[in-house]
Design a protein that fits this description.
By secondary structure, this protein is an alpha/beta fold. The chain contains twelve helices and eight strands. The relative contact order is 0.15. The structure holds 2-phosphoglycolic acid (PGA).
Length: 252
């Protein structure tokens, strides 16, 4: 049995004060829903204060990115051990990073390996663009992101990762995929290539989240699918009642 997870990706939103306020609202709403793993991923600047606010709660914390080098002259970057000091998770290869910041399957691979080395749980994002989807390239793109992004992980490391399937055309657009369509991509283009590297049993054991315009009103459609284990939530993670609705749907 895979435990459901709902993770909030705040993206470039929330100052320290705003992030702490959101947590003070959210903690009492979702802290008791122990059947779901609940995680928030603030921007780097709010990570310390949010992680302090979360101490003593059941809610986990993560970053939205990291750099693969250990330390040194990499202006503007954040090292894996700096993240590991403050959180348990890290989002890697989000489509916005791939689109706006030149991330490739190769950089995703380096970051995933670095995160694992420092005891972080990577949430590795994959997904096709609208053009790729309409051009019949979903399988090639998504399975390629899995095969290349997870290359060289030991079986033990591969068992620790979480994958998020986020069709790019569904992110922030209000245009979510349908539950069955997302499930098919996850079963055939994520679990299958993963199984080709790490075996069928391991492929059935990892958690795969859906992301892209998830909200309280459509969450149940995704969580009812056999291969979807939760959600990576952007917009709806910025308001405590909206995020709570999704966590409750995952618990139901
Ligand atoms: P969205 O973002 O929920 O606002 O569509 C999801 C994500 O990008 O992780």
């Amino acid at each position: 049995m895979r435990k459901p997870m709902v993770a909030g990706n705040w993206k470039m939103n929330k100052t320290v004060a705003e992030g702490v306020k959101l947590m003070e609202e959210l903690i009492p709403m979702i802290n008791g829903i122990s059947s779901v793993d609940r995680v928030v991923c603030p921007p780097f600047t709010a990570l310390y204060c949010v992680s302090e606010t979360l101490k003593g709660s059941e809610i986990g914390c993560g970053a939205q990115d990291l750099f693969w080098e250990e330390k040194g002259a990499y202006t503007g970057e954040v090292a894996p051990n700096m993240v590991a000091e403050l959180g348990q998770y890290v989002i890697i290869g989000h489509s916005e990073r791939r689109t706006y910041f030149g991330e490739t399957n190769e950089t995703v691979n380096k970051k995933t390996l670095a995160a694992l080395k420092h005891g972080l749980t990577p949430i590795v994002c994959v997904g096709e663009t609208l053009e790729e989807n309409q051009g019949g390239k979903t399988e090639a793109v998504v399975s390629g992101q899995i095969l290349e992004g997870l290359k060289g992980l030991s079986a033990e490391e591969a068992a620790k990762i979480i994958v998020a399937y986020e069709p790019v055309w569904a992110i922030g657009t209000g245009l979510a995929a349908t539950g069955p369509d997302a499930n098919k991509v996850i079963a055939d283009y994520i679990r299958k290539p993963y199984a080709s590297m790490y075996g069928e049993e391991a492929a059935q054991a990892i958690r795969v989240l859906y992301g892209g315009s998830v909200k309280g009103s459509n969450a149940a459609e995704f969580f009812g699918q056999p291969d979807i284990d939760g959600a990576l939530v952007g917009g709806a993670s910025l308001k405590a009642p909206d995020f709570t609705e999704i966590v409750k749907a995952a618990a139901a």
